[in-house]
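In full, the data.
>
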Amino acid sequence: MRYRVAILLPAEAELKQSIKIENTRFSGVAAALRGVGIEVECAPYTDEAVEDARAQLLRVDGVLVWVNPIERDRDRSALDALLEDVAAEGVFVSAHPEVICKMGTKEVLYRTRSMSWGCDTRMYPTLQALREELPRCLATGEPRVLKQDRGNGGNGVWKIESTTPVVQGNSALAPDARVRVRHAKRGSIEQEISLDEFLQRCEPYFSGNGRLIDQVYQPRLTDGMVRCYLVGDRVVGFGEQLVNALYPAAPGSNPRTAPEPGPRLYYPPTRSDFQPLKDWMENEWLAELCQTLALNATQLPVVWDADFLYGPKNSTGTNTYVLCEINLSSVYPFPDEALAPLAAATLARLEAAPRKRT
């Protein structure tokens, strides 16, 4: 075996030394990598043992990262610094932190809003900008969806709409106007509060370099979400799920709580009705994305996904799609059909820039 790759995965500090890759959900990934001649080792990660991880990663040729550090009130600072350091030493990193900053935050929705996957999208870099612009958006009567720049599990994602009758000629809602809000975080309830109270709730999202992205609500949300899985610049499968935390209440149900989410289903890249989406992604959107973000196709992560909501059907009755988010940090699970392309792409990246280990 010419190359050695570490699979970086999250671990509890007390269990770190006992994890074997064959006993994790990444056993299939390890088998696929070994099938193309890559030696694989497990690299359990915790922020508290970052120096141990650094020493291990400097001994390998590449690292595939499956750590989601945006949880339990943590951030990416320790992990990003580690990955940047080892990448500077020539270690191949499956998703470089610089690429994650460009593609893997909600800001990508704003930067690519003019693409055909885009919609009416605003960005609020400060709380003051939110206070000035959101009341004007809501005065149109259309519901909006606000998303914090970095987050997962629906945390920091809000649907908001005015319940105050829209008066023609009014350019903005007043601070005491009533709004209906629903947080996408599981277990949240729908509430009616004043606009000013909601704006106060948003203040924590602007800490550090935080910001909020604002998209017009997509009325076809109830038709589900399509996840497009990619290895580099090739679509390798699809997922489909009813992501319903922001659904309107069903008739006869509690109007304040969201229904339970539906199962996520996985499909090969050959699924017939998703071929237009595959074609748009591979032959139009990826080139536009790379140009907009100043990326080379070779910088695209080894495995990543893009989530789409259904937009309005076009004049021929074909579905259109609206980008909901891009995930790069910890993409798992994914269709089995992605395993072979993932292994092949990893080998190709290693061969393109072989590293001399010390």
Summary: The longest strand covers residues 3-10. Residues 275-293 form the longest helix (19 residues). Residues 66 and 332 are 8 Å apart (CA to CA). The chain has a mean pLDDT of 90.
